[in-house]
Amino acid sequence: xxxxxxLQMTVxxxxxxxxxxxxxxxxHALQAADYQRAERxxxxxxxxxxxxxxxxxxxxxxxxxxxxxxxxxxxRQAVLVDPANAMRTILFEPDVLDAAVAPLGTHGPRLRxxxxxxxxxxxxxxxxxxxxxxxxxxxxxxxAAQQAPPPADALPSPxxxxxxxxxxxxxxxxxxxxxxxxxxxxxxxxxxxxxLPDFSLRGIPRSQGRxxxxxxxxxxxxxxxxxxxxxxxERALQDYPYLESSPTHSxxxxxxxxxxxxxxxxxxxxxxxxxVDTRNGRQHDIALPEGxxxxxxxxxxxxxxxxxxxxxxxxxxxxxxxxxxxxxxxxAVRTVLEEASDTRLQLNVYSYNRPAVAILxxxxxxxxxxQRDGRxxxxxxxxxxxxxxxxxxxxxxxVRDLLGVDVVSGWAYFSAGGVDGGDPYVRGLYRVSLQxxxxxxxxxxxxxxxxxxxxxAxxxxxxPQALSPRGDYLVDTVSSLDQPPRTVLRAxxxxxxxxxxxxxxxxxxxxAGWRPPHRERLLAADGRTPIFxxxxxxxxxxxDGSFPVIDAMYGGSFISNAPVTYAEAVSALNPxxxxxxxxxxxxxxxxxxxxxxxxxxxxxxxxxxxxADVQLDDHVAALRQLGARYRGIDLQRxxxxxHSFGGYSAARALLRYPAFYKVGVASAGSHNFQGMYGGxxxxxxxxxGGVLPATTTADGxxxxxxxxxxxxxxxxxxxxxxxxxxxLDENAPPALTLQLAAAxxxxxxxxxxxxxxxxxxxxxxxDATYTHRMWDYFVRHLAGQQPPDTMLAPLPxxxx
Length: 800
Fold this sequence. Notes:
Low-confidence stretches: 1-27
Shape: globular
Mean pLDDT: 92
C-alpha cells in the first residue's frame, strides 16, 4: 500500500522536485521485452546454468581422485583422475549406467555415486538412491548391495560402518547389521543433543517437518571411536510469535512460535560441550567457565588421538578467545592459549568461513590463525604449552583460507589476497614451510584462484578437499569477471599446471544475454583507504550523463559482496538482480567498504558498534568518484536496494543521506538491533558491541545500539522508500519492518509497504512479486518511466 503525506503543500513541493529530477530521463519507454530481457539474466534463472564451474575432488587411497560433473544434457557423470599420469577418464556414461542397473529394477538417473573403493582389479562404485547398488568398474557389473546405506538424515562415521540419527532429543547410534541404540541420555525439548536449535533461524520449517532432522553441531573423531559436539540450551528463552495470515487451506490465521532471545533479554541461549565414547557409552557433559561460550562457527577444530580441540570465547571487555584441549576419556579441559581484543576475535577474515586452523596429530603442533598483528596470519603453536613457535606468514595482506597441511613434507597451503599489492579480494594460492621462511607463490596472476577450503561448523563442518592427502597435488578453479571458470590440477611443489580438469560451459549464460561487469579501485571517505567496487553497465551505456545509478548493498560485517569471479557475478549470494537492473537502463554498483570482512582487522572493525554507518559514508564517496569516472552516471538520480542487513543499510541510506539517495528498496531489513537476536552465541551484542551495559534509553534500547535504530531517523525521509517483508522470516523478523513503518507513520513520512504471504528470508531470490515490484519501483521513481503492464513468469524455486 502507499501512505501519502497528509500535508498538501509538502506533496506539491515533492511533485515539483520530481519533475525537475526526471527532466533528463531517457525519452524511450520501457517495454515488456525489456523486462523479459532482464528476467533472462536474473540470478535465479542463471543459477546452475554455468555448468561445471567448480568441482570437489574425492581422493582415493592410491592417489587418484574422482569428481562429479554434468554433461551437455545436464546429466550427472563421474570422472576418474590419475594425477601421476595426467589421465582423465569418464567412469560411466548415464545411459550405460542406466542399462547396467535396469535388471535390478532401478534407474540410473535416480542413483547418486556415494563412494569409490580401490580393488586389486579395478574399482567398486557404490550408489545410493531408490536402492543401494554396487558396481564393479571398468566392466560396470552391478549388483544390489547386501546392506542398506545410511538414511538421508544420518551422520555416517568416517569408516561408513556406523551412523548417528536423532530420536527424542538424543543421538542414536547404529552399526551395520545391528539394532540402533541410544548414544546420549538426558536430552529434552529445547536442550537436546544434535538438535537443530531455533537460533539457527529455521525453527518454523523444522517444526513443520520440512527440514530433515540430521544431527547438528556434532561430529566423529577420525578413528570413529568418539562423538563430540555442542549442546544448546534454549529452555529459558521466551516464545517469539510469527503470524501466518493466509495459511494454505484455512481462513484462520496461524501462529508459529520459536524460542528467541532478543537483544537485552536476561535469558539467552546457553551452550556446552559433550563427548561420548561409542565403545562403552561413557558420556561427558562439559560445562564451560562462567561467562564463556563456544565459538559456534568454529565447532570442533580437530583431534589428536583421544584429545579434541575447540575454541571458546568471552565477549566482555576485553574480549577473549581460548583454544582448549579436552580429554575424551575423562572430559578434563585444559587451556592451550588465550588471545584478547577490544573488538572482534575470529579465526578467519570472514566470520562464518571455516577456521583457518589445523591440528597436526602426533606433532604437538597446531597451525593457528590470529589477527594479533592487525592483519590475519598463520602461526605455528605448540599444543602442550600454547607457545607460539613461529609466525609463518606476515606482511600487509591477509590469509584467506587454510587449504591443508602436509605434515610429512612440512608445508602449509593457503589462499591469500593482496600479497603483491593488487586487489585484496582476488585470491592467489601459496605455501609456507612449517619452519618459517618466505612464502612460495603457486598461482597468483591477477585471476582469482578458488581452492576448496571446506565449510564452517554452521554450514556442514566439512574439511578442505583441494589438497591431496599426500600433499603432492592441488585442485584450483581459475576465473575473473570476464573469464569463465577453468579448473586445473596443479603440482603442489611449484604450482605448475599438470592438466585441465574442466572448462565451464557458459553457453547458456551468453545466450541469455548476460554481460560481465567492471572492477574499480576507489578510495574510502577517509581519502586514503583503498576500497573496491564492481560495476554493471546498461547495454546502451554512453557518456551523456543520462543513466541513473543504483547502489546494490549488503552492508553486513560478515561477507564481501562485490564479485570478483565470473560465477559470483552471474549468480550472486547477495544482493541479486544487478545484471537485470542494468538491462533496464541503470548503472548498478556494489561496493566493499570499510567494516566488511576479508581485509585487515582495522578495516573490519570499522563496523564495530557503528554497523553500516561508516560503510554508507564510503559508499557515498565511492559513488561520487564513479560519477567522475563514468560520465554517463547521473548523480542526481541515485537509488539503493538491499536485503537482510542490506535492507537495514538501504533504508538507513535514505535516512542518513536524504539529499543523495532518492529511491530505496529495503527487503527483510534488520531495522533495529533491540528487536534482533541477542546473546553470546550469535547475538547482535556479540557481533557489534560486546556485553551490554545496564543503562538503556527511555524506550528500553541498550545504549550502544540506540543510535543504530533506523526509527530514530524516520523524520529524515525525503525520497521514495519501499519496505518489503515476508511474514515467516526468522532471520529478520517482520516486526522490525513494521516497527520502522510505525515510526515513519508517526513522523508523517510517505513510504510503500510490500507484504509477502508465507514467505521467509529467501524472498529476494525466489519471489517474482518482490523482484518485479522492485524493478517497477526504480523504473517509476528513479528513471521516471512507466513500467510495462505485463505478467512475467515466476522465478525458479519460489512461490512466485
